[in-house]
Amino acid sequence: MDDFLVNRKTNRYHLIVAAIDKLCPNVSSKREKEVFASKKIIDILYPNQQLSHDKFGAPILSNGKAISISHSKHLVSIITANKSASIDIEAVSEKALNVAPKFLSEQELKMANDAEKATLMWSVKECLFKIYKKGELTFSNDFAVNNIKEGHVECFIFKQKYTLNYEKFEEHWLVYYFD
């Protein structure tokens, strides 16, 4: 497990962040690297378990543990938990700020006044999308970022409140949820 940049395990969740190139140096295409790196981590953490996907594309482990996977540039992040798990990792970029009106409400746009905050809010909404798992919704209307505190974000899927965790990691925002 020396290949992991982060390997945080508690009785409630297991969080991994790893460099994709270190896990699969001989794989050429970006998508193949992402898939191979994710599979390699799962094989290390849960040997003899199979990974499949539900009808919405969300990953499922054969042992019943909740799992979520995210990739960004050269990193892969995975979280597992007992009931529910969601993770997103995003490189901070101006792109999130430029497209913010497409995924943020008017009220949220006031909070997203720079690339850092806009990227964090994008990552929060991606994480909420993975919690919801059903599709057919809009990021600007159906998900709400209510309050950003140090290390936590209070947010909603429709009227259901969630508290997501976040941290900065190598110029990326890592946002995750577990239950």
Question: Could you explain the architecture of this structure?
Answer:
By secondary structure, the protein is of the alpha+beta class. The chain folds into 2 domains: 80 residues, Ribosomal Protein L22, Chain A (Alpha-Beta Complex), CATH 3.90.470; 89 residues, no CATH class. The protein has 6 helices and 11 strands. The strands form 3 sheets. The protein has a 5-stranded antiparallel β-sheet. A 4-stranded antiparallel β-sheet has the order 1-2-6-5. Strands 3-4 form a two-stranded antiparallel ribbon. Helix 3 crosses helix 5. The chain starts with a strand and ends with a strand.
The portion of residues assigned to helices is 25-40%
User: What is the count of DSSP helices, taking H or I runs of 4+ residues?
Assistant: 6
Mean pLDDT: 91
Count of folded domains: 2
Strand proportion: 35-45%
Give the radius of gyration: 16 Å
Query: Would you count the extended β strands for me?
Result: 11
Record the strand order, biggest sheet: 7-11-10-9-8
Q: Spans of 5+ residues with little confidence (pLDDT < 50)?
A: none
List SSEs in N-to-C order. Answer: EEHHEEEEEHHHHEEEE
Structural class: alpha+beta
Q: Span from first to last CA?
A: 24 Å
Major pleated sheet = 5 strands, antiparallel
The 3D shape can be described as: globular
